[in-house]
UniProtKB/TrEMBL annotation:
<keyword id="KW-0805">Transcription regulation</keyword>
<dbReference type="InterPro" id="IPR004111">
    <property type="entry name" value="Repressor_TetR_C"/>
</dbReference>
<feature type="domain" description="HTH tetR-type">
    <location>
        <begin position="1"/>
        <end position="60"/>
    </location>
</feature>
<dbReference type="InterPro" id="IPR023772">
    <property type="entry name" value="DNA-bd_HTH_TetR-type_CS"/>
</dbReference>
<dbReference type="Pfam" id="PF00440">
    <property type="entry name" value="TetR_N"/>
</dbReference>
<dbReference type="InterPro" id="IPR001647">
    <property type="entry name" value="HTH_TetR"/>
</dbReference>
<dbReference type="InterPro" id="IPR009057">
    <property type="entry name" value="Homeodomain-like_sf"/>
</dbReference>
<dbReference type="InterPro" id="IPR003012">
    <property type="entry name" value="Tet_transcr_reg_TetR"/>
</dbReference>
<keyword id="KW-0678">Repressor</keyword>
<feature type="DNA-binding region" description="H-T-H motif">
    <location>
        <begin position="23"/>
        <end position="42"/>
    </location>
</feature>
<protein>
    <submittedName>
        <fullName>TetR/AcrR family transcriptional regulator C-terminal domain-containing protein</fullName>
    </submittedName>
</protein>
<dbReference type="Pfam" id="PF02909">
    <property type="entry name" value="TetR_C_1"/>
</dbReference>
<keyword id="KW-0238">DNA-binding</keyword>
<keyword id="KW-0804">Transcription</keyword>
<dbReference type="InterPro" id="IPR050109">
    <property type="entry name" value="HTH-type_TetR-like_transc_reg"/>
</dbReference>
<dbReference type="InterPro" id="IPR036271">
    <property type="entry name" value="Tet_transcr_reg_TetR-rel_C_sf"/>
</dbReference>
Length: 197
């Protein structure tokens, strides 16, 4: 048993029972070990949850980084969509991720910020838009996963349409992008400086 095995099995346990029911006792039983042996790899449950959150984000964390020739608008949308898809891959994925600190992802974040800046997006607005899009995405997935957990078979009144979570997410994301465009000086990759008159 190593650290990677523990995290993998902990994520499988998460998918089976949900975040509320994940415990080191259940995990130890699943691994066929005594509970204290888990503390060799993780001193606290919080340490374990942080490692689970980092591992769960691997599909998004390993997605290709933007290139200078990429359209920043298309990339901004796809970056948020990739984040959403990754959160949805795990039961309670948004709850697991919420509040985690991406300490191992700082290099990638800096690359993304530099890409937006080189595309004509002011640095402060780029930071705020990425933060807003990230928190918006987590919130949307929290609601979507909560709805999935609470399916009771109750039907909505005829005049209340069922919410399409993906359509709603895309609409809100477009509004965030529209707001960011208000602060942008370039339409694509960084524009050449104007020639002197």
């Amino acid at each position: 048993m190593n650290r990677e095995t523990v995290v993998t099995e902990a994520l499988n346990l998460l998918d089976d029972v949900g975040l509320e029911t994940v415990s080191t006792r259940r995990l130890a039983k699943r691994l066929g070990v005594e509970q204290p042996s888990l503390y060799y790899h993780f001193r606290t449950k919080s340490d374990l949850l942080a490692a689970m959150a980092q591992a769960a984000m691997a599909p998004h964390a390993n997605a290709p980084l933007p290139s200078p020739e990429d359209n920043w608008r298309a990339w901004f949308l796809e970056n948020s969509r990739s984040f959403r898809r990754t959160l949805l891959m795990r039961r309670d994925g948004a709850r697991l991720h919420a509040g985690s600190t991406p300490t191992g992802d700082l290099g990638r974040i800096r690359h993304k910020m530099a890409f937006l800046a080189s595309s004509g997006v002011p640095e402060l607005q780029a930071q705020m838009a990425m933060l807003a899009a990230g928190r918006y995405t987590v919130g949307c997935v929290l609601e979507e996963q909560a709805d999935a957990e609470q399916q009771t078979g109750d039907t909505l009144p005829d005049d209340v349409p069922a919410l399409d979570h993906e359509v709603a997410f895309e609409a809100g994301l477009a509004l965030i992008l529209g707001g960011l465009e208000q602060h942008t000086t370039a339409s694509g990759p960084a524009s050449a400086p104007p020639s002197p008159m």
